[in-house]
Amino acid sequence: MNFLAMDDVDIALLNALQDDASASNQSLAERFDLSPATCLRRVRRLRESGWIAREVAIVDPDRIGGLLTAVIEISLDRQDAAALDAFEDRVVADAAVQQCYRVSPGPDFILIATVRDMPGYQALAQRLFTTDANVRNVKAFFSVKRAKFDTRMPLPTLGA
Predict the structure, then answer these.
(1) If residue 101 lies in a helix (H) or strand (E), which one and from where to where?
(2) Residue 142: per-residue pLDDT
(3) Residue 101 pLDDT greater than 90, yes or no
(4) What is the dihedral of CA 20, 51, 58, 115, to 10 degrees?
(5) In what order do the strands lie in the sheet with 68-76?
(6) Tens digits of residue pLDDT in 4-59
C-alpha cells in the first residue's frame, strides 16, 4: 500500500499506534468511530504493507541506571562501496550500537551507542574501531542529559 492509497483514518491509526502500540483493537475502534472488524482489518493492512515495521517495548534507561550514551563520528580511509558496506555490517551487528547512519558530507558514519560505562565504551572502540585498519578518525561525544527521545515518524495529513 502506498501513501496515496491511505486515508485520514489510516494516518490517525498510525499516529495512535506510534503513541501506544499496545492499544487494544476495541479502544482504537471506539476512538476512531470504526467497527472492531474494520479497525482490525485496517491495522492488519498497515502491518502487512510494511507501514508498521515492528512493535517494541521501549525500556526506560533510568530504570537500568548508569548507562553512557555516545554519539560517534567515524571517518574511513577508503569509501568504496565494499569498504562502506563492510564497516556498516560490522557495526550494526554490535548490540551496543542502537543507531547507525551513513552520512555526507563530513564523517562517513554517525553511530548512537549505549554502554554501561567508560570501560564499556573503550571495549566498544577496541572492537569496532581500533582493530579496523580502514578507520581513519573517531570522534565521540558523550551525553550528559537526554532532553528528548522519540520514535515517532511525522506523518503528513491528507484531508486538512
Answers:
(1) strand 97-102
(2) 97
(3) yes
(4) -160
(5) 97-102, 109-115, 68-76, 135-142
(6) 578 999 999 999 999 999 999 999 999 999 999 999 999 999 999 999 999 999 99
As a three-state string, the secondary structure of 16-42 is HHHHCCCCCHHHHHHHCCCCHHHHHHH
Altogether, the residues listed in the chain come to a count of 160
CA distance 12 to 112: 30
CA 9 – CA 15 distance, rounded (Å): 10
CATH of 3-48, one of 3.90.960.10, 3.40.640.10, 1.10.3720.10, 1.10.10.10: 1.10.10.10
Q: Evaluate whether 23 touches 16 at the Cβ level (below 8 Å).
A: yes
% residues pLDDT > 90 (the chain): 86
pTM, two decimal places: 0.84
Separation between Cα atoms, residue 15 and residue 10, nearest integer Å: 9
* Model pLDDT, residue 160: 54
As a dihedral over the C-alpha atoms of residue 115, residue 116, residue 122, residue 123, rounded to 10 degrees, the angle is -80
